[in-house]
Structure formats: C-alpha cells, structure tokens
Amino acid sequence: MRTWTLRGTTTSYVVGVPEHGQWAQLVAWGPQDGGAPVTVVGTEHFVPRADVEPLEYAVRGVRYTSPVELVVSGPDGSDELRPVFVEAREGDGLELEFADVVRVVLHYRMVGDVVERWVSVRNDGPDELVLHRHDSAAFVVPVGNIVKYLWGEWNSEFQQASVTLPRGRFTIGSAQGITGHSYSPFLATDGDVAYGVQLAWSGSWELSAEVDTIGLLRIQAGRSASNLGLRLAPGETWVSPKAVGACSAEGADGLARVFHEYQRRGSRKRVPKTLYNSWFATEFGIRAEHQLELARRAASIGVETFVVDDGWFVGRSDDTGGLGDWEVDPAKFPDGLDGFIARLKDLGLDFGLWVEPESVSPKSRLAADHPEWILRTAGREPVLIRNQLLLDLSREDVAEFVWNTLDRLLSSYNISYLKWDANRPRLDAGDGRRDVDGLAVSHLYDILDRLRDQHPQVVVEGCAGGGARVDLGMAARVDTLWPSDNTAPLDRLRIQEGFRTGFAPHLMSSWVTDAEGTHDGRRRSLDFRFHVAMAGVLGIGADLSRWTDDQLKTAARHIEQYKGFRELIADSKVYGLTAGVQYVGVRRSVVFQWETGDGNVRGTLPTRPRRVPLAGLDPAKNYRVGTETYPGSYLLQAGVVVDDSADSHCLVVDLVD
Length: 657
Ligand code: DGJ
Fold this sequence. Notes:
Immunoglobulin-like, hydrolase, EC 3.2.1.22, 31% strand, Beta-galactosidase, Chain A, domain 5, alpha+beta, TIM Barrel, globular, Glyco_hydro_36, 38 strands, binds (2R,3S,4R,5S)-2-(hydroxymethyl)piperidine-3,4,5-triol
C-alpha cells in the first residue's frame, strides 16, 4: 500500500491507497507519538472487501452494503461506479485522484491539528449525470463510540448531549436551508484522545456516525442530498464544501482548543469593541431621540459601538412589513441617518446597523416590484414564516440586489458594524432542477467575502434568529456570531458552554441584558451577568435608561476591566474549570467562576473554602493573583480560593518574571 502522512502540530493523519487502487483508506490518525492505527484483519464473509475496510470516501459500486459517500447515476439506469486510482499530487496538501466516467479527487490539507477534506467530482462522460449522495468526506475514528453532539431550538441553542453507539447509526442534520437551531454540524467523541468532525456549510446538511459490526466508528459529513439530485453536465465539476476532522490528546477540552485555533487562523485579527444593541430595549419602537438617550448612557459607561437593530427602515413598525425596502424611515430619524450618526460620533461612538438582506415582507415594495425574486415552488404559494418570505438567493440577479443593497448602505453612511440576521428557514424547494441550496449558500459566501474585501473596516456579526447560522462556513467569513437570543444569565451560561465545545470565544457575541431566564429564572447579580458576557465578545443589550447610577458604575467598572484583557479572551487557549473557565495567554490568564447553584452544598456549619485548580500554566514559573504570588505548580494543583459569598468571580493571573 502507498501511504501519505499529513503532519499537524501534535497529531498526524495517515492515508493509503492499496495496490489494487480501488479506494483510499485511513491507515492511522491520532497523536504523533502514538497515532491509533486502523487495521482490519481476518476474512470478510458474504460482502466485498471494500465493505469492511476503513474507506476514506466510499463510492457506490465499489462498496455496496456499508455506507457510501458518493452515488452517481447516468442515463443507462445504473448508479454504480468503479473509479480507479490515477495519481497522487502533493503540495500545499494532498490530492488523490480516481477515475471512472467521473473523475473524483479527494483533497486534504492539514491546518494545525485539523484535517480539512473536500472532494471534487468532474463529469468526464458525454451524458448528464446525477449525484444522489455527495458527502464531503468520511472520517474513520480509530477509538471511541460515545458520540457527542449539540442540539437546541430557538432560545436554547448549543445544548450538549451524547449517545453511546455499541453498533448502529446516529444522524443529525438540517433540512432548513440554513444551519439551523436544532443541531450544529458537529460530532465529537469523548475519551482521553478525542476526535471531532465539523462541516463548513450554512445550508442543508447531514452528519452521521455509524459504528459498524466490526466496531469501528465512521463519521460522514456533507450537504443533504435532495430528492431530485444534483445534475452534473458533461465537463462540469462539482466541488463539495469542506469537512474537517480534528484530534486532541487532551480530551474534549483539548479538542475544543484545536477547533478554536483553527477558527482563529481563518479569522481577521481585531480588537473586539464593546457594543450596545438596542433590540431588547426598544424592539421595533425606534425613535432617534430615544436611541440617543440610550447612546449617551452607553457612551458614559465605556461602550464603543452603538448598533441600531431591526426597525430602522420604512414599513417596519412590527415584523409584518418593510423587509426588502432598505430605506431609512424619516419618521424615526427626522435628521436622517447621517444626522443620527453624527450625534453618535459626538458621543465618541461608532455606528452599527442591523439588516436581514435575504428576506422580503409580502407587503413590501420589493415584493410588488419583483414577485419573480421570491423563492417559491412552481404552482404553490410560498411558505410564510415570521410574516416573511425569502428571496431566491440562488438567482444571480437576487445576489446582485443583495450586494448592491449592502454596498449602497455601507457606502452612503458611516457604518462600522453590520449585524446580518436571517429569521427564517429556507423551506420552499424552488426550481429543483437547479442546485438551489448550493447556489444560495455560495452567493451568501460570495457576498460576505466581497464585504470583507470592499468594506474591510466594517465588522460583521452573523445572526440567524439567535444561533441558527453558526458553522465553520460563517466562522471563516464574519467577525463574530450571535449564539442565541437567550441572554438570561444561567440559561446563557449553559448555551455558551455548549458553544465553546466547537466554536472559539472571538466568535461568541454576548450581551448583558435585563432578561430573567426562560429555562432557569434564578436571579444572578450584575457582576455575574457581566462575567458571562465578558467570557466572549462583550456587548450591552439592556434598557440602560432604567439602570440606576450604581448599576451604571458597576457596568463601567466591568467594561474597563474587560478592555484590559479582551484581546486575550479573543486569542488564547481556553480551559474548562470546575464551575468556570480559564483563558490562558502567554503572560496573562483570566479566570471566570460562576456560582450556578447546581452544586451548592453549603450548610450552616464551618466549612473549608472552595478551591479551584487552574489549568494551562507553567508549573515551573510564578504567577501573581491579586496581591499574592504563587508557583504555577501550586495553582495547578491546589488552585485558587473562591469566596462563595459572591455569585461570580473574575481573576487575573499574571506571570511574574
Ligand atoms: C433575531 C435576532 O436574534 C435578534 O437579536 C434581533 O435582531 C431580531 N431578530 C430582530 O428581528
């Protein structure tokens, strides 16, 4: 067997093609000093050999009874292919090429400890072909059968769960044309060496984990197959989105760090400015004077960017109108948006704007002018959700309209921040002879890329009715993501813990609001609420006009502290602690501790103080915590004392030379 080794920072991924050249298979994947080999021994019975080997990418016609990633049919009524190995190309990564009537190339690239994988499929025959299944990759996971996933719904995204698979199959996905609230495109294993898979796609998708009868776990990741399949004309090439596999010898927490590092490499480096967003304070009831009143208070506590959310444009007094007609409402902004922005600037604030460019309200002017732009299935009424319809972003003219709308707004006004929302799933199939999901998502990505290119000064926040569009595709194109509309302290903490297992803190937009809790209504202090939001990209979403002077002072103190370490939060290794989290940079570390009440066993008798062992420090060096200096070894083992009289803590730990 010919083999190739992709070497990461601490792990390696070894892939091979046997002499017969009928497939590629995983040879080993894991830590470099002991990458778990995957070898199947013994004789197969009643099935072809391909059905038991750890195939990297299985094609129907090579493999029959075990799961396959590619199914292609042609006009002859067959859906079987037998591609044969042509060549390997090494360079930036690895390409393994196989040929039949289609030319299938398996692409690999190692980034940190993440293996990026995708396929391209070219139709080399004279006839149109149809792809019925078209995954990006399958990852054979050498050890483990406990599969962890993230599930949720609106207001409770990123809930952590796991399933043990002695044998059998577990599938999650989205049929919503958007990543979805229900599941994240993320599966991981638990164990000392942890493995994880994510898919970089913001449309419909599917991830499956299957433990075969041999006992080997294999995870497939790809775009959902549509009932009508993807058509591939002669000479045409289809390229899948990227799926990535990651491995860490530091368990699930280490796996999260590998994903974080990968996402940081794909992000722009920036100082996360503290913003104020008016949504929870005013909803659609926007009036410039009132917004300015909020802005004055926001500026006085140290906020740097003021974002006007939904409701600023004509026809938008509730969620039934306005979408598509992106003109500033003169009744809400009597001095125009320019006048409003000028007054924000006088307060020292940058300006941010909310948009939802993919949607259209049925009673908007846009819907009347361009009924052909509305996504619908021929002969059917389009599906109305949250009183809105979708534009058919798979169309070039619609993509151009969306780009022009954003470009015009960003070129006409002094906008530093854009919150891109998407408040409904894409359910109407549209013209199923076209790849609507593929084209719509590609256009979305093109527009985001173009924004970055042509308006580089604008920070973009991705949002989708809370956290329905959080995935690697978005993570590579926006500066930050909104995980959930649930900002109640204890609910939010749980959501953020789930988010952190797959997504980095610089992507985690988090606001302090007045929300009391949808699922857990226990009240928490303002300090607690700040510490939760300071663990990501801090924002304020409360009605500041109701805050007392004391509350404003507390807020100012936290914002000032946050500014002292926000770049560290955005750019450091994160370790989960008992009831908290620790961000470890080169010279400084920030520790958050939250009293959730879940493990509260304090009685009335004298007790020992609670200690929290820290992580990620150098045992041979000294660190200052408050006024005391401790050896790293002590902090790692004995930890810091947490005073239980407060419900949260933020400690700064500094390296002492
Ligand atoms: C859903 C978002 O998650 C909210 O923050 C807010 O922007 C609303 N949409 C506005 O309609």
